[in-house]
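seq as requested:
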Amino acid sequence: MAKTIECRNVHDAFILGMDAFSWDPDVLEQDSRAGKTLEFDGPVITTYQNPCERVLFWEERDANPFFHLMEGLWMLQGKEDVASLVLYNKRMETFSDNGLTLNGAYGFRWRNFYEKDQLDVIVKRLKADPDDRRCVLAMWECNNDLDRDTLDTPCNTHVYFKVRKGRLNMTVTCRSNDMIWGAYGANAVHFSMLQEYMAGRIGVEVGVYNQISDSLHVYMGLFEELKEKLPEFDYYTFKFPMLGNPYKNIKPYPMVSEPEYFDDDLQTFDEYDDSNVSYYNQFFPDVVVPVRNAWFMHKEGNTQGAISLLNSFCKAEDWKIVCVEWLERRLQGKEESKDTEAVIGDKNVK
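struct tokens:
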């Protein structure tokens, strides 16, 4: 039986999902290649009403915001290389079959894998006919994925785009979705960035984001560990409280202000390591460059300097808050994820 989780944004979705896995009678124990899981018996549909509110603030989850943001840009660039991601997450190299590329790289499949840029095609179709219902973005390929032994098989398989009432709605289908690291972690960031990018290029507002997870699951050891750290609430209503959503007081910084030049900015950002270059979209100098520079300052050992840099130059309040808090936990030795974000399939997952 299908379940629905309706939420304002990923910050709400995460706690609702943790709560659902704690009590829902349709949650079953299931074996997997990476260990015991809890899995919903049927598909789960998550609807984000405000997908651009994409930052996860839960300290207990300790999501790596630097990696999330940079991987989202890497996807929009249409890249498949491992080297770009290893700069922000060393574990990504363990998912490469050849040490150089990732087989299931979403962005590469969006823009290069099928011998045409699918994003360009969809933009042109929806600009020409906003009622079009054929705008399907493919990330699954029979010959490459269905019967191949690879370390990186795409979990998300298709994205459907449609324009209704002047807003771009998006539905993502996923064959296998780990709730903690995937669905309500990286996926909510990357696909909402794709949605905002596409809406900007089409010339419409961002609508709702639906995620259909055929197998929404959590790894039991990680789930139980995390559940113990989260605050408890009344078991007769919700196990975990809705402690207030930070986005009630924060407005997301617009990612796309000059859509016709956004791809140029992606290329500029990819080619230059310094901040003394010109961008068309202010999201790059005001958010992306400070976040990137703070990350490398942290990796060089100057974490306090990285915090000061973010406080001084990052103009996106949501990204600034989570990046600063993440760095402060490193200074205090309170990190939970040990600077990792991709753990599925790791031998240490229980």
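The longest strand covers residues 156-164.
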